[in-house]
Amino acid sequence: MAKRANIDLKFLDVPFKRALAMTEIGSADIMLGPNRTSAREQYMLYLKQEPPRERKKFYLRPEVPDIVIYEDLIDLTVAVLRGAVYFKRFDNDETQPKEKINTYKSGLQMVVLNRLDSVIVPELLGDHLVRKLGLSLKKATFSHEGRPSYIAVSKKSSLVQKKRLPQLNFAPDER
Q1: What pTM was estimated for this model as a whole?
Q2: What is the Cα–Cα distance from 113 to 136, expressed in whole angstroms?
Q3: What is 56-144's CATH number, 3.30.70.2860, 3.40.190.10, 1.20.58.220, 3.40.1350.10?
Q4: Using CA of residue 102, residue 157, residue 25, residue 10, what is the dihedral sign?
């Protein structure tokens, strides 16, 4: 997409909540992966093309009983990425103990250290981090498709000011 629009990208790896803030104030032009919410629509424009949805999985220590159905989460404290949303039932469940974390890496490590019972992570990222960090964790049977994630552009970005969005904002049939 950037190549086609002749835009040079510089990637910054920052905590999710900071990426949201950077997009809101305009210090980041593009953000990969945010879910669409009415609050975020105040400062982000979402590109038409929706990346494939990624399943959200719960990662646990091997000795912790499997999560097979949603109700198996009862009494488990789950790490959630600060500022992230996963799926409506989970996000709105006030009885579910949740611990906010800055990075999925730190959440996975807290599970290994027995500080938390589980962490919910997009599956491909979770699998990558578990392998990369050499962690002894298992994935729960239960998962959820989750909400769609997008590529979003800050409304304060020069890409918007210079009317470059049409070069980026395409649907698959517009190539």
Answers
A1: 0.70
A2: 11
A3: 3.40.190.10
A4: positive
